[in-house]
């Protein structure tokens, strides 16, 4: 009989790398069923996983252990770490090689993955994936200068990355005032002195009707920025928010990249109701998609969205990206090209808006300043920025 090593901790980085490389782990999530359904570890790879709440192990240890049917190494996940250590010890006593996630599920929420979109001698584009939330941001570097599009809350991730690349932050660009996550742009601007740009329509909180208390430069349709060999043009694309902007980036060598924010995703598009004006803004979404984006962005441009609904949307390289031509052909949410049908489809497929989205918008406007624990609570779970049909698909 092989004696299993006693349980120890694994970091989220170690777990993630093993899942995407060897997929040799079996995850036992011991949080309650509601929390598990809201969010859990997921990647583009299928994961062997079971949800057996912690209290089930207390009430029926044998029956709970029997649900863990695997020869793989087990990793136990809980909210903060303590419960998972207890369950890992139980599983170890039953003959499993069992370890547990250091720091609990919140460490999954803080995990970022930087992936290369394209690298040349003169410029580089990187996609930053905060997998727990399905949030994507981007770092563009050329000739030692950098721009970050839609930076997320954990600013140290970006500062460390720029230091590794030897690049100086030149611009911070938010495509819109986000509702699902807290922007890192104001803090990065304060830390580096780089100017922060936002469309003024999104400076005002849509529910409180209050002006922002953050410092930013006004972004307008047609504004252009140059970072080395990359030229960036702002396209005002309202609908998800009134100040929603997308960025069309053209390299000196001719390649084009479309950073769509929440205008359009690989398999859906941005819902119009997060400002409380779904019926009024749905027609604006139609005009933006079919009269602005379709006309302004070529089929050859690479679409780089602000979110994804499911990890399976990634391509073979792990990137959430495809050409605009591919997107127009495969995006099932764009099947209704007639205006009235489209609007009806949108309004009948709106998920419930999480209450915390209103508060997140307050944070992003600088109207409130929550502590770290409160910010983590606000950002629990996946983003719900697309139509409901995007989350129902495999």
The main sheet comes to: 7 strands, mixed
Instruction: Write down the Rg.
Output: 22 Å
Quote the distance from N terminus to C terminus.
Answer: 41 Å
Number of strands: 18
- Name the CATH architecture of the largest domain: 4-Layer Sandwich
Helix content: 25-40%
Number of helices: 14
Tertiary shape: globular
Biggest sheet strand line-up:
6-7-8-9-10-11-12
Q: What class do helices, strands and sheet pairing give?
A: alpha/beta
User: CATH superfamily of the largest domain, please?
Assistant: Ribonuclease Z/Hydroxyacylglutathione hydrolase-like
What is the CATH C-level name of the largest domain?
Alpha Beta
CATH topology of the largest domain: Metallo-beta-lactamase, Chain A
* Beta-strand content estimate: 15-25%
**Mean pLDDT, as a whole number?**
94
Number of domains: 2
Low-confidence stretches: none
Task: Explain the overall architecture.
Helix content is 30%, strand content 23%. The strands form 3 sheets. It has a 7-stranded mixed sheet with strand order 6-7-8-9-10-11-12. By secondary structure, the chain is an alpha/beta fold.
């Amino acid at each position: 009989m092989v004696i299993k090593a006693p349980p120890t901790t694994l970091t989220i980085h170690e777990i993630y790398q093993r899942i995407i490389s060897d997929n040799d782990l079996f995850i036992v999530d011991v949080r309650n069923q509601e929390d598990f359904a809201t969010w859990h570890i997921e990647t583009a790879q299928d994961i062997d996983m079971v949800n057996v709440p912690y209290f089930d192990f207390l009430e029926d240890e044998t029956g709970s252990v029997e649900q863990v049917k695997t020869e793989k190494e087990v990793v136990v996940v809980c909210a903060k770490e303590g419960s998972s250590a207890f369950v890992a010890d139980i599983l170890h006593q039953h003959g499993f090689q069992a370890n547990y996630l250091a720091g609990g599920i919140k460490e999954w929420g803080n995990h970022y993955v930087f992936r290369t979109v394209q690298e040349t001698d003169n410029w580089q584009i990187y996609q930053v994936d905060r997998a727990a939330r399905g949030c994507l941001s981007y770092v563009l570097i050329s000739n030692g200068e950098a721009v970050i599009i839609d930076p997320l809350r954990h600013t140290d991730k970006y500062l460390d990355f720029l230091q590794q690349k030897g690049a100086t932050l030149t611009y911070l660009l938010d495509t819109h005032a986000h509702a699902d996550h807290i922007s890192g742009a104001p803090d990065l601007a304060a830390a580096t002195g780089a100017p922060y740009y936002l469309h003024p329509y999104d400076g005002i909180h849509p529910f409180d009707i209050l002006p922002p208390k953050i410092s930013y430069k006004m972004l307008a349709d047609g504004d252009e920025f140059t970072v080395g060999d990359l030229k960036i043009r702002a396209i005002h694309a309202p609908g998800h928010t009134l100040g929603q902007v997308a960025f069309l980036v053209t390299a000196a060598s001719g390649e084009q990249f479309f950073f769509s924010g929440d205008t359009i995703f690989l398999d859906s598009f941005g819902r119009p109701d997060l400002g409380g004006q779904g019926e009024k803004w749905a027609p604006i979404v139609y005009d933006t998609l079919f009269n602005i984006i379709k006309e302004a962005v070529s089929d050859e441009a690479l679409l780089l969205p602000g979110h994804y609904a499911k990890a399976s949307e990634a391509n073979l390289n792990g990137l959430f990206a495809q050409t605009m031509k591919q997107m127009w052909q495969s995006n099932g949410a764009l099947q209704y090209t007639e205006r009235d049908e489209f609007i009806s489809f949108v309004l009948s497929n709106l998920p419930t808006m999480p209450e915390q989205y209103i508060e997140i918008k307050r944070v992003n406007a600088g109207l409130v300043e929550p502590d770290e624990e409160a910010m983590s609570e606000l950002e629990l779970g996946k983003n719900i920025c697309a139509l409901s049909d995007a989350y129902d698909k495999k």
